[in-house]
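Progress note, sequence design subtask.
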């Protein structure tokens, strides 16, 4: 059987058309770069060819190098497409639709002209996978558009829309794109005979003094523990002081420092894990999913408002219902204020706000949402309240409507009990703030229909979320795996570690904030009441006397000016408070707990091993599908540093055996909360990887 070539070359009226055809996104997989180079050489050798175009078949131009090939030995390419395009004696026009990212844009920059359809996006996102543009992007882009905008694009990795790319000078013309190939051929014909615009021949880019140091300073906080952003800066800096060939050599050297570093390995893993999480293998492939065009959110509180915004932000009309007119008005005002802040910050335009806001329609009666395809309940987190809403929904909603509950812990099945259609009910657990946080846990109840589960997963993606499967259990997957982190964080304080030490360890590890500072920000009272409720249900529940005492003394966090830390009026900076130190000592003495110093390593391990152990138990019980799904949840729900891959990826850097041994020792010392998971033991004994662990139902 002959293989379909990944690059085609044909001649149309004197124009050589080079088409990359490597689905799904025309990544530069085996043979693609070589195929482009060979086509360019063929076009140059053929007197019938006067100019060439480079374009992508299918939905996109070229999405970049094939990320799966990084970190593995690759045969050295005899001739890279970038060189062949650059050196071509005949003009080559890149015609961009979909995405020109990474190596895709670098190929386009090696051409002599670039045209794009209005919906196209271009970018050099390599930094997001821990590397830098290694196909000349760091040398060509600054020469073409100037050091400052190139630096910003390369250090952030953002996708630049076609219009902006035109304004920056990255693309030469925007074409309608009704017939990309014909329009590209026409453009190529128009440049025949014009001098070639070879970016490599341009002088080094000019840069204003201090540009690079300023950039290094501005990223210092976000980029701590990482190397790629700094190497990106160094490479662009090289483009301002070195001739092209030397700049290319410097780019290569800086690239090679990164490719196999732990940071790049973790970020590549995260990239693929975020795509894998979308798959639920036990759903039939040909399952017909109900189409969702209209939505309703019940409850105009902070969470409901955020969920409604996620719909509006992604083009869905959404009704926001609240039986309390004042609550509804307050909710709508909060939404308006949130949008106004985004406009002020420049993250959206006024036009975008004006498009999004009218998509959210406030309504007071639940009957007004009866015809919506999906409804998400986001009312108070109490079973009777939720059951009452679901009984009402059951009475009014059209039979095919999907009924989702935004709960973080309540049994989905008990909520479904309030309806006569439990098969239509599933959980949709959003993370606060719901319009910002990417994670959506989709919870399958025991009676949820497969098409409802599939539709809810798909809906999450349609409103810009990363949907992850969760089975119905207390805390579902994300919060359940995090509970033991929170528990250890508090127990270590009883035993002598200070909140500020624990916070510092976690910030140094890469979290944006330490866990105690986060607690102060969210408010200590919510978990206080949860603990009281749990204690009432279970007399063996492990109480946490220190945060209880803080709340009882009026220290509820930032909102009361004091919690684990002290705050100055109008300022969110946490200040260490000797009052808290005294309270900790008092409680420890009352409880007869001997305090001792903790090493930073013990703190880190106690927090994360506890959660890794629980994550294994969740997998064992079939409540999560893959360890990598849990990693995606930690990255997108809890601010776990992305360049560490996620909880389980990080755990593998320590090793399952070492973690198991430590947990077994802590089990002996501290009792049942450290009971090692059987799955963890198996992985440790087999010398396997925790990040590859799967639920029994997937094996
Ligand atoms: C680079 O270029 C280095 C250079 O400087 C040269 C150095 C020498 N490779 O995301 P989707 C797969 S580094 C391999 O669901 P969307 C993806 O896994 C690269 N596979 O679609 C998925 O597979 P599956 C710089 C890739 O429409 C399928 O394609 N470029 C690659 O939501 C569909 O992807 C980037 O970092 C790839 N490069 O989004 C761009 N890209 O179906 C990375 C995609 O099996 N890609 N796949 O799960 C993206 O950002 C998005 O995929 C894109 C499309 C925006 C293009």
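Output:
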């Amino acid at each position: 059987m002959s293989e379909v070539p990944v690059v085609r070359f044909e001649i149309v009226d004197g124009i050589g058309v080079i088409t990359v055809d490597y689905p799904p996104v025309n990544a530069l997989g085996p043979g693609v770069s070589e195929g482009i180079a060979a086509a360019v050489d063929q076009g140059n050798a053929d007197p019938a060819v006067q100019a060439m175009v480079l374009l992508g078949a299918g939905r996109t131009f070229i999405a970049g190098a094939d990320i799966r090939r990084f970190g593995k030995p690759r045969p050295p390419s005899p001739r890279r497409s970038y060189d062949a395009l650059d050196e071509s004696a005949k003009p080559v026009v890149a015609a961009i639709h979909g995405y020109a990212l990474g190596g895709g844009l670098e190929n386009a920059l090696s051409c002599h002209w670039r045209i794009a359809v209005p919906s196209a996006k271009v970018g050099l996102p390599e930094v997001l996978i821990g590397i830098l543009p290694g196909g000349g992007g760091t040398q060509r882009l600054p020469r073409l558009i100037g050091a400052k905008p190139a630096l910003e694009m390369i250090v952030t990795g953002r996708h630049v829309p076609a219009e902006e790319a035109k304004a920056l000078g990255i693309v030469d013309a925007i074409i309608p794109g009704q017939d990309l190939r014909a329009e590209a051929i026409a453009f190529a014909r128009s440049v025949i005979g014009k001098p070639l615009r070879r970016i490599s021949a341009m002088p080094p880019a000019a840069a204003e003094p201090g540009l690079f140091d300023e950039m290094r300073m501005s990223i210092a906080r976000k980029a701590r523990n990482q190397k790629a952003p700094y190497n990106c800066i160094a490479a662009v800096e090289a483009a301002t002081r070195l001739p092209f060939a030397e700049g290319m050599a410097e780019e290569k050297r800086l690239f090679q420092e990164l490719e196999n570093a732990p940071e790049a390995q973790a970020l590549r893993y995260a990239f693929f894990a975020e795509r894998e999480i979308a798959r639920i293998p036990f759903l039939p492939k040909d399952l017909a999913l109900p189409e969702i065009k209209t939505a309703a959110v019940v409850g105009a509180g902070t969470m409901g408002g955020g969920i409604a915004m996620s719909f509006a932000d992604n083009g869905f009309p959404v009704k926001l219902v609240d039986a309390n007119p004042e609550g509804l008005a307050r909710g709508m005002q909060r939404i308006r204020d949130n949008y106004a802040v985004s406009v002020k910050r420049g993250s959206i335009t006024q036009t975008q706000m004006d498009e999004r806001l009218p998509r959210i329609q406030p309504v007071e009666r639940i009957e007004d949402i009866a015809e919506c395809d999906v409804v998400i309940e986001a009312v108070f987190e109490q079973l009777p309240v939720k059951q009452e809403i679901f009984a009402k929904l059951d009475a009014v909603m059209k039979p095919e409507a999907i009924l989702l509950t935004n709960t973080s812990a309540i049994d989905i099945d008990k909520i479904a009990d309030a309806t006569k259609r439990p098969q239509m009910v599933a959980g949709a657990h959003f993370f606060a703030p719901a319009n910002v946080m990417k994670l959506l846990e989709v919870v399958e109840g025991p009676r949820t229909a497969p098409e409802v589960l599939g539709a809810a997963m798909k809906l999450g993606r349609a409103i810009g979320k990363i949907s992850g499967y969760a089975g119905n259990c207390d805390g579902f997957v994300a919060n359940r795996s995090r509970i033991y982190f929170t528990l250890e964080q508090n127990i270590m304080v009883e035993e002598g570690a200070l909140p500020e030490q624990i916070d510092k360890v976690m910030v140094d590890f890469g979290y944006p904030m330490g866990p105690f500072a986060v607690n102060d920000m969210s408010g200590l009272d919510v978990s206080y009441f949860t603990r009281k409720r749990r204690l009432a249900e279970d007399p063996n529940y492990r109480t946490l006397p220190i945060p209880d005492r803080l709340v009882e003394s009026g220290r509820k966090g930032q909102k009361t000016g004091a919690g684990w830390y002290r705050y100055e009026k109008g300022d969110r900076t946490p200040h260490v408070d000797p009052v808290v130190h005294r309270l900790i000592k008092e409680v420890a003495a009352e409880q007869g707990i001997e305090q001792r110093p903790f090493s930073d390593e013990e703190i880190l391990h106690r927090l994360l091993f506890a959660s890794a152990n629980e994550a294994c138990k969740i997998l064992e019980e079939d409540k999560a599908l893959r360890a990598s799904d849990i990693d995606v949840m930690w990255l997108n729900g809890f601010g776990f540093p992305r360049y560490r891959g996620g909880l389980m990826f990080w755990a593998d850097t320590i090793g399952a055996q070492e973690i198991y041994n430590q947990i077994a020792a802590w089990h002996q010392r501290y009792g049942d909360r450290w009971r090692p998971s059987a799955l963890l033991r198996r992985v440790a004994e087999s010398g396997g990887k925790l990040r590859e662990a799967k639920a029994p139902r997937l094996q």
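The chain has 28 helices and 17 strands. Work on this subtask will continue into the next period as scheduled.
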